[in-house]
Amino acid sequence: RVAIEIGWYAKQALDCYIAKTLHPCHVYCALSGIGLASGKVAKEQGAVYVCNRLSSHILHQDRILREEFESLGLLFSGIDHRIVDKECAEYEQADTILVPSAFARDSFLEMGLTSDKVHAIPFGVDTGQFKPSMPRDEVFRVLFVGQLSVRKGLHYLLQSYKRADLANATLVLVGEPQSETKELLDRFPVKSVDLMGTLTRRQVAEQMSRASAFVLPSIEEGLAQVLVEALACGCPVIASRNTGATDLFNDGEEGWIVPVGSVDEMASCLIRLYDDPTLLDDMSR
């Protein structure tokens, strides 16, 4: 609760500071959550106000995460109502809203915003840093990079990896544990799991180069940057539709795009890559 309060007042203070010090400009772009007061000033000065939202519509995000936590019997306090109210006011006030994927854009359209106001521009990747940098391991490595959380679909990854039952394979989890991580690992135990914690970008690129498959079964994203990075490292991707994957690669060519929670389908994709080294090489290229 303390962290929530600090975050709320920090965003308020930043927004108000920018509003007081904003110089006249033609276009003012602010991340969602810190652009209500400053965006109003920018528009009064004659500028176009662009709200940059990195995830799906905040009401959609709150609903979909709440439902997932409830299905697992886990506590989800929800997104602070003040943040929700402020972001919704920003969406209304903005001349244009930028999001990073078609999935995120569609969540705004479902909430009644018009297609001429919401525009999807996918993220890019630094191919000087993310590129094949190490040989793929002989051992089949299934890689996940991100917060070890319900939002990222960790519980579905654990279930699909166990169901695939790949002999002599390793599941590599890179990322910061969350309050629910231990509960998920205990509830859905798997063999041969390597918990690596947080790594540097260079180390992440090495893990992506070594892996045979990158799996991200997220419940909700704007667009998962790690997908772009894994593809740039030549690692086939298995991702849920809610990751923004449809903006990045073609289903069945560089990897697979699956429905959220499709444990059997993800397991089947892992088995296909495991059983067919030629397919793995083709997808990697």
Detail the topology: elements first, then pairings:
Blueprint: H1 2-21, E1 27-31, H2 36-44, E2 48-52, H3 58-72, H4 81-93, E3 96-99, H5 102-110, E4 118-120, E5 141-145, H6 154-164, E6 170-174, H7 181-187, E7 193-197, H8 201-210, E8 213-216, H9 225-232, E9 237-240, E10 255-258, H10 263-275, H11 277-284
Parallel strand pairs: 1-2, 2-3, 3-4, 5-6, 5-8, 6-7, 8-9, 9-10
Task: Describe, in plain words, how this protein is organized in 3D.
- This protein is α/β, with parallel strands linked by helices and 285 residues long.
- Helices cover 43% and strands 15% of the residues.
- The strands form 2 sheets. It has a 6-stranded parallel beta sheet with strand order 7-6-5-8-9-10, sandwiched between helices. It has a 4-stranded parallel beta sheet with strand order 1-2-3-4.
- Helix 1 runs parallel beside helix 2.
- The radius of gyration is 20 Å and the shape is globular.
- The mean pLDDT is 95.
SSE topology string: HEHEHHEHEEHEHEHEHEEHH
What's the mean pLDDT score? 95
Give, in spatial order, the strands making up the sheet with the most strands: 7-6-5-8-9-10
Shape descriptor reads globular
State the major sheet: 6 strands, parallel
Helix coverage percent of residues?
40-55%
Radius of gyration: 20 Å
Query: Helix count, per DSSP?
Result: 11
Unreliable parts: none
Fraction in beta strands: 15-25%
Secondary-structure-derived class:
alpha/beta
Distance between the termini: 47 Å
In total, how many beta strands?
Answer: 10
